[in-house]
Amino acid sequence: MTQETKLPVHVLSGFLGSGKTTLLKRLLAGPDLHDVALLVNEFGEVGIDHLLLNEVAPDIVLLPGGCLCCAIRGELKQALLDLYERRQRDQLPPFSKVILETTGLADPAPILATLLHDRQLQHHFSQGMLVTLVDSEHGWQQAEQQPEWLAQVTASDWLLLSKTDRVPPEELPALRDYLQRLNPLAQIAYSRELADGDLSLFATPFNPQAPQRFQRWLGEIALPMKAPATHAEHPVTTTCVITFDQQINWSAFAVWLSMLLHCHGQSILRIKGLLNVAESTTPVVIHGVQHSLHPPIHLSAWPEMRRQSQLVFIMRGISASCLQNAFSHFLQPYTTETTAAGARTP
Amino acid sequence: MMCGLCGLLNDAPQWSDPLQQQSLPVRQLRLQQLAVLNRALAPFRLKLSDVHGSAWLLASPTGQQQVITRLEQLWVEAERLLKHPIDPLDPAYLAALKLAETP
Questions:
Q1: Which of A194, A262, A314, B15 could form a disulfide with A270 if both were Cys (CB 3.0 to 4.6 A apart)?
Q2: From the list A260, A280, A333, which residue is nearest B22 (CB)?
Q3: Dist CA A296 CA A294 (whole Å)
Q4: Domain co-membership, A21 together with A125
Q5: Would you say residue A225 has pLDDT above 50?
Q6: Is A280 within 8 Å of B19 (Cβ atoms)?
Q7: How far is residue B14 from each of residues A163, A255, A293, B6, B11, measured CA to CA in Å?
Q8: A222 or A192: which carries more pLDDT confidence?
Q9: What ipTM is given for this predicted complex?
Q10: Structural domain of B66
Q11: What HEC string does chain A produce?
Q12: Domain containing A242: what range?
């Protein structure tokens, strides 16, 4: 099976009570229901989510055993393989994507690791978009008190603000700004603005026909026209953007990044970037969450931006200058020019 | 997966594998990767050598050896031999890296 025909597994996360089930019901209200297989996770003794969603989508597999963490990665694997097998046997409609609703307490990294590292799943499934709902009413409190909330928010491609009717409208921009600084790579929207049946959240960013979608996925922070700020303070995370014009040797970069993730994977919450790799005329996209890195993706052409490598790291407890220094020291000999790489901290 | 001829274990593709699009032969890409790894390990006096183009052999200065099949495994085994973490952000490591390159 080729990369193109792998079924994307999109992850919908969000802290307890953030409205994941409500959103899913709305999104799956469209006519393309049979295009989507849904995996929900039971939390607690009673599968309340299952009862709610059963009327919406018939292709639900309920994951037993509570939280989707490392301990039940095998169950996630089995649930996905069961889905695939039933699809192959025509017991299910030929769905083209899977949406996995996590529990409110799930860290997305082990889920992504399961998708990326399991040899059976690798053949049939690919990692899709990670969408996280943020409860507007309790977002501030959860940001301060819940590490799971932080893991979900920093890993996400999309952040959707829910329950916006429960807070004064003038307070929303502050929360939105806070989230944008926490995860500058994410696109942010209000869940109320999504139309019923609108599954565009789960559209793959790597479509050669839609380079602007990739640009959005890469994040506003990497837009070349955006003036780089020189300093930023955030109580929780640090974002480091490394840009360089030289071509870089892929093997050297991979060795350095592998070493970095082995030692500091827990502190590197999110990585995204595109690289100008030596001996390849097209850019290579990398992205990952904590220890889990997606296989590099070759784009067919450069997006509408300068032909420049851009790497974005969202980190906890690592300074941007420290990362930049290590990057330059290690990789300087493996770039085709001798000028130093430049970093900016948004 | 095990090779029937040499008995070496061959793991699934890793994100850090040499890129297939590059024009160099796979063997040469692998040697290039080996050179980078040996530079990274030099400050710790560890040495890596190729085994049949499908695995590596990690050797410590005291003669301890370990077969490595994946990059992630390399760091785990190297730390086990060294009995301390390998931190690419450590200023002492970066200084040692620079010192090792000084003629």
A1: A314
A2: A280
A3: 6
A4: yes
A5: no
A6: yes
A7: 41, 12, 9, 21, 8
A8: A192
A9: 0.89
A10: 26-101
A11: CCHHHCEEEEEEEECCCCCHHHHHHHHCCCCCHHHEEEEEECCCCCCHHHHHHHCCCCCEEEECCCCCCHHHHHHHHHHHHHHHHHHHCCCCCCCCEEEEECCCCCCHHHHHHHHHHCHHHHHHEEEEEEEEEEECCCHHHHHHHCHHHHHHHHHCCEEEEECHHHCCHHHHHHHHHHHHHHCCCCEEEEHHHCCCCCCHHHCCCCCCCCHHHHHHHHCHHHCCCCCCCCCCCCCCCEEEEEEECCCECHHHHHHHHHHHHHHHCCCEEEEEEEECECCCCCCEEEEEECCEECCCEECCCCCCCCCCEEEEEEECCCCHHHHHHHHHHHHHHHECCCCCCEEECC
A12: 228-344
Mutation choice for B interface testing from A112, A122, A248, A250 by most B CBs within 10 A: A250
Q: Are residues A260 and A152 in the same domain?
A: no
Structure tokens at A140: 């501030």
Contact check, Cβ <8 Å, B33/A293: no
Q: Element (H or E) spanning B49, and its range?
A: strand B47-51
Domain count along chain A: 2
CB of B18 within 8 Å of a chain A CB? The answer is yes
The residues pairing with A134 across neighbouring beta strands, listed in sequence order, are A161
This model's pTM is above 0.90: no
| Residue A265 and residue A193 share a domain | no
Q: Could you give the number of structural domains in chain B?
A: 1
Tell me if A214 is assigned to some domain: no
Assess if residue B17 is contained within a domain.
no
Residue of A114, A259, A275 to mutate when probing chain B, most B C-beta within 10 A:
A259
Partner residue opposite B40 with nearest CB, options A122, A255, A279: A255
CB contact under 8 A, B15 and A280: no
Q: What is the pLDDT of residue A310?
A: 85
pLDDT digits (tens, 9 = 90+) for A172-221: 999 998 898 888 888 899 988 887 777 778 877 766 566 666 666 766 55
Of A98, A37, A104, which Cα lies nearest the Cα of A67? A104
Task: Report chain A's mean pLDDT, rounded to a whole number.
Answer: 77
Helix (H) or strand (E) holding B77: helix B71-82
Q: Taking CB atoms and an 8 Å cutoff, what residues of chain B touch A256?
A: 40, 88
- Find which of A22-26, A105-109, A145-149, A247-251 is predicted with most confidence, using mean pLDDT: A247-251
Show the tokens assigned to A218. 């890469």
pLDDT per position as a tens digit, B18-36: 776 656 777 888 898 999 9
